[in-house]
Design a protein that fits this description.
It is built from 20 helices and 21 strands. By secondary structure, it is of the alpha/beta class. It has a nine-stranded mixed beta sheet with strand order 13-21-20-14-15-19-16-18-17, sandwiched between helices. The two termini are about 25 Å apart. Fe (ii) ion binds next to helix 6.
Length: about 600
């Protein structure tokens, strides 16, 4: 029988993406931003779609069905309803959003057909159904409770339900404008970070602060019920009718205007971050407990942008009552492309799920483009790079030695990750034992705030020796403390320090990946999903006794993660990365000639 292909698309809101299934197996998935180099690109994912089709060797004419991750008319209805409820205050917002909606969103069907040159079936799923499907259907569980939490889709802002066999059903929803994602985004905006991408920074900043504003948030902003549902007091927000997240009343409540982006962070910003993080964790915990009570199941699957809050996820896992947790690596809207494709395959075409014990269906999230040695070499020659080709084992040994010597290494290997985290395919690596590594990587390589923590990649079998965790965390979406006996307690003098003054005090024998509160955002690495990365860490462990490396995404601040060898080479040359591993090639910074910007190389999207 001919293979059957289903293509899922998410687009026109933020973070558009495409995902392709072949007989239910995920063959490719990627975000558009990686190809266009526009972070969070929301346009029709032409490059991602083209890549997915090319990876499978098919054209749009071969597709059984195309799925879109939400229902544009329902979303338009919410926008229109909000406009009518808030006019004339909302008039400006409507004028700005209106033409876009009409052009890009309302006529999605025609647009998809034109872009794809495709006249076959197009099916739409509701936004949270897509999230829920992306959380459960590729999970390793036969049955599980499912919880989705984000900013907003059509109307829903959170939902829980149950996944069983090849079905996933939502039982209850929370609706616009009561949204945990938007509450978090309001504080992201207020503390001077970018909404939709700066939430991660707020989470990283939180441990430097005290939960001073928690009471104020509960008293004025959020009426939280025991079951995790809540009402947000719209008197303090401006996202419904205005163009900003918070208003003057909000500023008055918290004692001043929003921080101007890029100005100095103060203790107050840290306290605000800590406070909203605490509230967010409490809401997530209550929602999880409600999902457990309603389903009585031991497994929980999570998706939606808020499921990227790995501190909250870690807390859900520690507190129970769920025994196992699985989080979709592309938890944000990009993952909706995969969700809708899965939903179509299993619900619409009634196809069963095949479970492999102990494994999920994501292939380690290595679902993006890869580049063969010939193609990398041709590129390196075209830019006059100096490089050395090594066999696999010497390459791993050389890289491990560079890391052990304190060098910072760009590691470009195999298929690009799907989802916002780099998992050892497009990563910058370092030695976690070095007390200077965190500041060095932040400032010299990433050009970003010095407080931003780095994450460890650790061999799966040895995670419990280094962290208070003993389960899979393949997608870096769980936070747990560094093992108690490895922690270095603060001295009496250090305990008097506040905020960033705490940053330079080593907190454990792997200080570069130990956050200020002794926590770490852990990626467990298994040999079967990424043998090269696994063996590299193994080599590093042979040299140092430490089966952990620092893993940060291969990009600089504000840029999408690198996709092609050219992106990686440009990032390598622009920063102080010491060595670059591009497939089987090693490039040393010291051997390269002077880097000139604006070399005007044409960026190519042709893939192997
Ligand atoms: Fe969403």
């Amino acid at each position: 029988m001919k293979p059957r292909y289903v293509l899922g698309i998410s687009a026109f809101y933020h973070d558009s993406a495409a995902a392709l299934l072949c007989d239910g197996d995920i063959v490719a998935a990627a975000s558009e931003e990686r190809f266009t180099r526009r972070k969070g690109d929301a346009s029709y994912p032409a490059h991602a779609v083209a890549y997915c089709l090319r990876e499978a060797g098919v054209t749009a004419q071969d597709l059984l069905c195309v799925g879109f991750y939400d229902k544009p008319l329902l979303k338009f209805e919410r926008i229109l309803d909000t406009y009518l409820a808030t006019a004339p205050r909302g008039f400006r917002q409507f004028l700005m959003a209106g033409p876009l909606w009409i052009k890009e969103k309302l006529f999605t069907d025609r647009q998809l057909r034109d872009a794809l040159a495709y006249e076959g079936a197009i099916l739409y799923a509701e936004h949270h159904e897509s999230h829920a499907a992306s959380a459960f259907l590729p999970s390793p569980f036969e049955e599980a409770a499912v919880l989705t939490i984000d900013g907003v889709g059509e109307w829903a802002t959170a939902a829980f339900g149950v996944g069983r066999g090849n079905g996933v059903e939502l039982l209850k929803e929370l609706s616009w404008p009561d949204s945990l994602g938007l509450l978090y985004s309001a504080f992201t905006y207020y503390t001077g970070f970018k909404v939709n991408s700066g939430e991660y920074k707020v989470m990283g900043l939180a441990p430097y602060g005290e939960p001073k504003y928690v009471r104020l948030i509960y008293d004025h902003l959020i009426d939280l019920k025991e079951d995790g549902s809540f009402r947000l007091n719209q008197e303090y927000f401006d996202y419904v009718g205005g163009l900003t997240m918070t208003n003057l009343r909000f500023a008055k409540l918290f004692g001043g205007p929003p921080r101007i982006p890029e100005t100095k962070l103060t203790q107050r910003d840290m306290d605000l971050a800590r406070s909203v993080q605490d509230v967010c964790e409490e809401v997530m915990s209550r929602m999880a407990r409600t999902a457990h009570a309603a389903t009585g199941l031991d497994n929980l699957c999570l998706a939606g942008g808020v499921a990227l809050n790995c501190v909250g996820n870690g807390k859900i896992l520690r507190e129970g009552p769920f025994k196992r947790l699985w989080i979709q690596p592309a938890a944000g809207d990009a993952g909706g492309a995969l969700g809708v494709a899965e939903l179509i395959w299993h619900r619409h075409y009634k196809q069963p799920r095949t479970l492999v014990p102990g494994k999920d269906g994501m292939k380690g999230a290595y679902l993006g483009p890869s580049f063969g040695a010939d193609r990398i070499e041709a590129f390196l020659d075209s830019v006059g790079a100096v490089y050395h080709r090594l066999e696999r084992q010497p390459l791993l040994e050389t890289t491990a030695q560079l890391l052990a010597d304190g060098k910072i290494v760009g590691w470009f290997n195999g298929r690009m990750e799907f989802g916002p985290r780099a998992l050892g395919s497009r990563s910058i690596l370092g030695d976690p034992r070095s007390p200077r590594m965190q500041a060095q990587m932040n400032i010299k390589i990433k050009f970003r705030e010095g407080f931003r923590p780095f994450a460890p990649s650790v061999l799966r079998e040895r995670v419990a020796e280094w962290f208070e965790l003993n389960c899979d965390s393949p997608y870096m979406l769980l936070v747990a403390p560094v093992k108690q006996e490895r922690q270095i307690p603060l001295t009496a003098d250090q305990r008097k320090l506040w905020g960033f003054d705490l940053l330079n005090q080593p907190r454990s024998d792997i200080p570069a990946v130990t956050h200020i509160d002794y926590s770490a955002r852990i990626q467990t690495v298994s040999r079967d999903t990424n043998p090269d990365y696994y063996d590299l860490i193994q080599e590093f462990a042979k040299l140092t006794g430490c089966p952990v490396v620092v893993n940060t995404s291969f990009n600089v601040r504000g840029e999408p993660i690198v996709c092609t060898p050219q992106d990686a080479h440009t990032c390598f040359m622009r920063t102080q990365i010491d060595a670059l591993i591009l497939g089987p090639f090693v490039l040393y910074k010291a051997e390269q000639s002077q880097w000139k910007e604006n070399q005007n190389w044409k960026r190519e999207f042709q893939l192997d």
